[in-house]
Design brief:
Elements: E1 6-9, H1 11-18, H2 23-29, E2 34-38, H3 39-51, H4 57-67, E3 69-71, H5 75-88, H6 92-103, E4 107-110, E5 121-123
Parallel strand pairs: 1-2, 1-4, 2-3, 4-5
């Protein structure tokens, strides 16, 4: 796994952690790496955990908020996301989350194949 000092985790990485899908995700989240999470991923993760009927959703959400720094979507991030969306052909939510990562000079950690070939992305396969 490529390591940088900062990583913004998207919802796919958090979900892989909560569903114990990948050891490398566990290692990343439990490492000393400074982690960020977009406020948009809070929505995505909570929605998925509730849909799956997972117990301890509140505790899971509290863990995300304790383990990572939450990045709120600002006007500047939204503006940047529009450019990113057209440049890379990303959907709105993906472009907004990527723009959040760029706003804090962080690598985006994701399992979403839409990010294949996008600069500044660690893609878990």
């Amino acid at each position: 796994m490529r390591r940088t000092e900062f990583k913004l985790l998207d919802s796919s990485i958090w979900l892989a952690y909560f569903f114990a899908e990948r050891e490398e995700v566990k290692e990343l989240i439990e490492s000393e790496t400074i982690l960020y999470t977009s406020s948009l991923s809070i929505f995505e993760v909570k929605r998925k955990l509730k849909k799956e009927g997972m117990e301890g959703v509140k505790e899971a959400m509290d863990f995300i908020k304790e383990r990572s720094i939450i990045v709120e979507v600002t006007e500047e991030i939204a503006d940047s996301a529009a450019d990113i969306s057209t440049k890379y052909g990303l959907h709105a939510m993906d472009a907004l989350i990527y723009a959040c990562a760029m706003s804090v000079n962080s690598e985006l950690a994701t399992a979403d194949p839409h990010f294949e070939g996008v600069e500044g992305v660690w893609l878990m396969k």
